[in-house]
Amino acid sequence: MSTRAVVIGAGVAGILAAAALSPAVDEVLVLDRDDLPDGPEHRKGLPQGRHAHLLMAGGLAAADALLPGLDLRRHLLAAGAREVSLGTGMVTLTSEGWFRRWRPETPRMITCSRALLDWAVRTAVLARTGNVTVRRAEALELTGTAQRVTGVRVAADAADGAEDTFPADLVVDAGGRGSRIMRWLERLGVTGVRERSVDSGLVNATRVYRVPPGAEGFPLTIVNANPFLSRPGRSGMVLPIEDDRWMVSLAGTRGGEPPADPDGFLRYALDLPHPIVGRLVSGAEPLTGVHVTRSTRNVRRHLEKAPAWPEGLVVLGDAFATYNPAYGQGMSVAALGARVLAEELRRTGPHGPGLARRVLRGAARPVEAAWTMAVSQDLWYPGVRGGRPGLTDRLATRYVRRLTRAATGSFTAASALWEVTSMQAGAERLFRPGALLSALTGPPLPPLSGPPLTAQERKILRELDRTGAEDRP
């Protein structure tokens, strides 16, 4: 008897889930409410699709494991993506000062538009699996009971109101921020699932520019928000992406939101804690208008702790938890969750008792790590909704700030932070002896008074600057 899996959502989480399922079942049907483009083009079903996305080293390794015979890194780079070393390829202002650029090998991440990443991953999976099909359809509800999910009811054609039901041995909800999993669980009779939301009111504003001639190698530049000043956080990023373009993303929490008009966009960038982002883009040619998104809440669904869970239902990606996108970990968490699914399927097959529960518990580990990182920052912003820092938050924040301050002048401290943020290691990495000693003794080198640019990079910045802004600490 043939086995079928149905995946809800054809974004990165859904397509990687399909890759995990493909060796274990006869058919994988991926459902998405959008018509998927034939190339790297934006689609409306991704609320964060026009903003900056990063695929961290840990997420890339997890995705690679799902596609034997393919070097996903090379595949993405061939499609036009860029690769950035966290140690040498970034200029970063943190709440504790400027990070130095270290020459030793450090984790790398992939940068590109979300449209390119989705398209490249989807084409790679479809080319290497003979049993994965993507179909346009909107999932309406799950079929089955509180004990077992048996399929998905869909609106197959919005024009005529037709509905259909797809039976399935396994259903994966990877429907993203718009997932209706809580409502579906309630209809099945699954109760006791706790959900928490932390909302700093963050607004993203993004504009794409052509990289000016001669500036193609300029490092990824980030001015991070400082959550510890009792005022709205404001940040900016110049991200190199495919086709010699810069994706420039500004972000501000409640009370400090970036504007949507081009002149205001530039003024906001110049008024960040350091004007480098504004100075860079003041001399670059804009290719788009300013796109604004307010869909940035952190939402954690504690699905793995439900008193009872139906067989045949797995939840991955943003349907499990969403994070403030400023931290860039969502896609990597989705990839790590898909790898857990693949491992459990190899162990027991699609009908193994308790499979869905084990996948949820395994996927919850990277989910919790990303959630903790995002919320431990967002809780400090004024006007945050969903909680305030407790004693544990305050103690953890005090330690991480000491370690971050040490990292401004210590490769040992910086490498610990990079390994955790790139999802190559868990939070325990921050408490190894070298990191602990660094946090205790502080940075061995004095703080930098400005961005760590080379002489050539400073020349590029001066030539691009049309604002007359001066470097300042």
Automatic annotation (TrEMBL):
Pfam families: FAD_binding_3. Residues 3-345 form the FAD-binding domain. InterPro entries: FAD-bd (IPR002938), FAD/NAD-bd_sf (IPR036188). Coiled coil: none annotated. Transmembrane segments: none annotated. It comes from the Bacteria. GO terms for molecular function: FAD binding. PANTHER family: THIAMINE THIAZOLE SYNTHASE. This is FAD-binding domain-containing protein. It comes from Streptomyces echinoruber.
